Amino acid sequence: MGRYVIRRLLQMIPVFVGATLLIFLMVNVMGDPIAGLCGERECDPATAARLRAEFGLDKPVWQQYLTYMGNVFTGDFGTAFNGQPVTELMADAFPVTIRLTLVAIVFEIVIGIGLGMLTGLRRGRPVDTGVLLVTLVVIAVPTFVTGLLLQLLLGVKWGWIRPSVSAEAPLDELIVPGLVLAAVSLAYVTRLTRTSIAENRRADYVRTAIAKGLPRRRVMTHHLLRNSLIPVVTFIGADIGALMGGAIVTERIFNIHGVGYQLYQGILRQNTQTVVGFVTVLVLVFLLVNLLVDLLYAVLDPRIRYA
Amino acid sequence: MRGATHVTRAACAVAVVLVACACGGGAPAGGPDGIVTSSWGDPQNPLEPANTNEVQGGKVLDMIFRGLKRYDPRTGEAEDMLAERIETDDSVEFTVTVKNGWTFSDGEPVTAKSFVDAWNYGAHLKNNQRNAYFFGYIEGYDQVHPASGQPTAQTMSGLKVTGERTFTVRLTQKFSTWPETLGYAAFAPLPSSFFSDHDAWLARPVGNGPYAVDSYTRGAQMSLRRWDGYPGQDKARNGGVDLKVYTDSNTAYTDLTAGHLDLVDDVPAAQLRNVRADLGDRYINTPAGIIQTLAFPYYDPDWNKPGQEKVRQGLSMAINRQQITDTIFQRTRTPAKDWTSPVLGPDGGYDATLCGVHCTYDPARARKLIAEGGGIPGGQVRITYNADTGSHRQWVDAVCNSVNNALGNDRACVGNPVGTFADYRNQITQSKMSGPFRAGWQMDYPLIQNFLQPLYYTNASSNDGKWSNETFDRLVDQANAETDPAKAIKTFQQAERVVRDQMAAIPLWYQNGSAGYSERISNVSLNQFSVPVYEEITVG
Known about the structure:
The complex is a heterodimer of chains A (307) and B (540).
Chain A: H1 2-29, H2 45-54, H3 61-73, H4 86-121, H5 126-140, H6 143-157, H7 175-200, H8 204-211, H9 216-245, H10 248-253, H11 259-268, H12 272-300
Helix pairs in contact in A: 1-12, 4-5, 4-7, 4-9, 4-11, 4-12, 5-7, 6-7, 7-9, 8-9, 9-12, 11-12
Chain B: H1 4-21, E1 35-40, H2 55-64, E2 69-71, E3 78-80, E4 83-88, E5 93-98, H3 112-123, H4 141-144, E6 159-161, E7 166-170, H5 192-196, H6 198-203, E8 211-217, E9 221-226, E10 240-245, H7 249-257, E11 263-264, H8 275-279, E12 283-295, H9 309-317, H10 321-327, E13 333-335, H11 345-348, H12 363-372, E14 381-386, H13 392-407, E15 413-418, H14 421-429, E16 437-442, H15 448-456, H16 470-481, H17 485-502, E17 505-517, E18 521-522, E19 538-539
Parallel strand pairs in B: 1-10, 14-15
Antiparallel strand pairs in B: 2-3, 4-5, 5-7, 6-7, 8-9, 9-10, 11-17, 12-16, 12-17, 13-17, 18-19
Helix pairs in contact in B: 9-12, 12-13, 15-16, 15-17, 16-17
């Protein structure tokens, strides 16, 4: 187990370097960011040269990348164009997005797995068909449509929620955005759980457990659900990273000042430091969550062991 | 997964409780101490007077600073604010006297030194101020801000403090209307705390305007409160303003209609169709000092042949401005009739007849003129624009459509989108445009000079198409040297006629400022820079 974890952690290094280098090059290809800094008029050459030197843009790309990586290892992610250190932007943005992602994940787990169990155990009944239809609709409708619609109905027409989330983004204001963010994944989780449950329901160990006279509840949670969760956990794990990075649309609709907002601003202003910094952290989150998911397999199914 | 059900139940319970609590707060206070909430965008650059070149940062500067002059929010006229007198005999050397009794909100008196120090800071190369060129007319600017290399002086030789409240300014050339440029935010005075503890100042700016910054969370919100010690006539008539950063103007508009926000000063294009029904007469749509044009790459020999002005005139006449402003912009823009802006007024140099037939839709003459001028270079016009903001795609497509219809050729004009604004500016600076491109100009100060010189003078700061014309340059120099303002404006108009005859750039339309506000507030108006006049707003 320990050796497995170390091996996995070592594997992350090339992935990490490759991902950051790619992002670095991509942002660089977009052109000189200083050109957009002075509004509709050209920066005067002297000021532009000074700004370029300040942000290290006057050096060749490989040198910029090396300096950047060197700084990252000391915890310095550079400065955004508005003079704020990127770490400060991260300290503001990541807690908000993590809260939003947590709300979304909780929805996925509670509603997704709940509905999945319900439909998996009642395959072919009206409940099953109904839920399947609803998930189909949810998957088909794009996030921004769901978001804008809920915002309009709950926020403007009925006045149940505030249409926008305040800067502090407390948990209660994140419930609707979290639901919107989770919607599509939630539908997938439902369908995955349903299939898995329906399959395992006829498995020998379930029959054995029932034959042993175990209470139905124990059979369901400890035998059936636990064994059916492996594909679901894989999906949810991979989804954590996707939700954090993909929150751009939801965050824009509900005015949430999280990672998506900073990334969007960074891309619009071609701010290499912001974009690369945030993506670097997202890559790390993704890698770590994946490792965690793999380790969770052993917990769910003791037959799986890591050497 | 032992205990999973407990966790699930707990999560459910928490979720239910949270939903139940998601109710709004109490009603905010009204009256003279009522707080206005307004939409805001994150300023692009650090918030310093000489470093702010976009509307969002400018909005704050307008609230917390007062300079020597101020532009009347209604007429746009430059009026004395902190200036007691600005005197000159030769339009080169000016003596400025600062009014007595003004202080910054931290109690420090505003003196001649507050101005001179601030201007020297703004001009100096090492401070990276994006608006440094505003001080370019002052003698000694070349030494503190050379075009290349290191500065050779710390201060501008043309600025001298001659007393507690007086200082002199020497310009490098005659510039009769120079005092009228002093209402621009870059010329604001700065307190000594700006220089002694710069980081603390940036975290919570201190100025001398009707409002003082109460708290500032970057990227989220700035709370401004009325400063009761403000000595000016334009005291705030509300308790303060909370500027809230919105990532999307649509969300701000939604918040306004849901009653959670008092003021949006940027009604999104998508909502223009509903805005009358949603807000009634709480929707403002007034002219602002913004003109949009199509510029041409004169560095490209294909676009700079003698006699080709006929092609440009023809293109101008092939654009149905009225139809586009009516349908796409829902009358929030006005077809352009000259190269300035209606906010200048006829006395300030606006002339609704100047462009005349050249800006009137006339497909038959358009075809004829383009043919006479040798046809469109390369057979196709590609209008370059940035596709990330400002719904530019819609109007560029409409302009092309209009040109194609007028010329009876489906391939005569196409749009050429560029991904981001930064990349777009990048291509312009590198002179890479292969055809006409979107150009916009928001005035710095309401002067006809500001609509002509920076855009069309040889090698001027915003002459993106690198247009150059000796007659125009000579007339501008002559106008600047004119001591009588009325004569200066006449001469500028003469210069503008050169722009017209050569069709240096095709004027498209003047942009209006558009804003909407809630029932809680009244007395809302926009100034010529399309910024709300916050201090006049009353609550309740």
